[in-house]
Amino acid sequence: MELNYEGVLINLGGKSEGLIPKSEMRYIEQEKLDNLSVGDELIVMVLKTGFSRGSDVTPIYSYDKALVREGWDILEKAQNNNEPVEGIILGSNKGGAMIDIKGVQGFIPSSQLMSYFVPDENVEDSSAEIDVTGRKNLEKNLNSKISVKVLEVDQTRNRAILSERALMQELKDQAKQKVMTDLVEGQIVQAKIIGLSSFGAFVDINGADGLIHISELSWNKLNSPSEVVEVGQELDVYILNLDKENKRIALSIKRLTPGPWDEISKSMPVGTKIKAVVTRIVEFGVFARIEDMGVEGLIHISELSDIPDVNPADIVKVDEELEVTVVSLDPDRRRLGLSLKSDPLSQQEPKAEAEEPKAEAEE
Questions:
Q1: Residue 325 contacts residue 346 (beta carbons within 8 Å)
Q2: Is 130 helix (H, G, I), strand (E, B) or coil?
Q3: Secondary structure (3-state) at 169
Q4: Is residue 77 domain-resident?
Q5: CATH number reported for the structural domain that contains residue 112 in this entry
């Protein structure tokens, strides 16, 4: 092997020699090129044989085309075996990023990028355009390595579509599956809040993600998870359910604290006057929530006024705050009877249980 101004002279065995022109060595790493020496081996593709029109000529070979052929083989094998591949970031455009895999230029749509671009959750089609911040971040990392999964490969169309997101999700699922084998329902483990949404809080448990539904964050009714937790917070969680088939972990933090019905007899005995907010108006009365306790009670129509046969909607309105009196309490059956009367206990008449629906804690 010899390197000169024309390229690299190679020996194919015996007395056969050939030339790899510099124009066919564009994909060789500079460090590898600088360190080439006699005796090194290269994989090449034949461009021109050593015999043309009856005379001997110097055979011409290509390192680049051999590398590209190897690149397509790597991509096709990776797709068939569902394996990841590693590439080099070449650049980006509005649609995503271009990477090189052994001379083959592949494309990662912006929706499939994770390391350098996070889609805006307020944009309906986050794959439409990679944002400026993402492009600048990618441009700062040109020639950096990135691992991806192969979504589509078609050598005849010179097309290779890749995904970093799919690989990250697969690795995440594998880690989650491993963690889930060590967890059991009813167990208490430490977790870290990694995200909030309108319906709950996402947490990380040793690399596995789980969800605390908003109804499991507190015994009280919440408008937003941010009222009780924040991103980055570490806390103990109770494992409600493990769905190993769908890789879902349902968690709770309210189950680690006493429920309102556990102590309601001590904090609100019969005769207690307390503030309540009207939540529903029905034909047989009004439901009102004790905010401090997170429980809902029933003001039966007969307890709305000293005047008989009233229309509940004429007495109160939804969201109105009232001062009520506890007239009956059954923690075991989660029933709470309330009254708006001025002196409800003086002439209280028992009401048929069938008429009084169950009032429960907010869940």
A1: no
A2: coil
A3: helix
A4: no
A5: 2.40.50.140
| Tokens at 287, concatenated | 């439901």
Last residue within a domain, chosen from 169, 204, 239 = 169
Name the nearest CA neighbour of 177 among 276, 74, 255, 247: 247
Query: pLDDT tens digits, residue range 139-168?
Result: 777 888 899 999 999 988 889 999 999 998
Q: What is the pLDDT of residues 98-151, one digit of tens each?
A: 998 887 889 999 889 887 644 443 434 434 344 444 555 667 778 888 999 999
In this prediction the pTM is 0.52
Structural domain contains residue 221? yes
Residue 75 lies in a domain: no
**Residue 208 token pair:** 């596995």
From 229, 256, 283, the end of a domain falls on 256
Q: Can you read off the two tokens belonging to residue 318? A: 């939804």
Indicate if the pLDDT at residue 203 is higher than 90.
Answer: yes
pLDDT tens profile 187-196: 999 999 999 9
Assigned domain for 188 exists = yes
Number of structural domains found in the chain: 4
Helix then strand then coil, % of the chain, to nearest 5: 25, 35, 40
Range of the domain at 241: 183-256
Q: What is the mean pLDDT of the chain?
A: 81
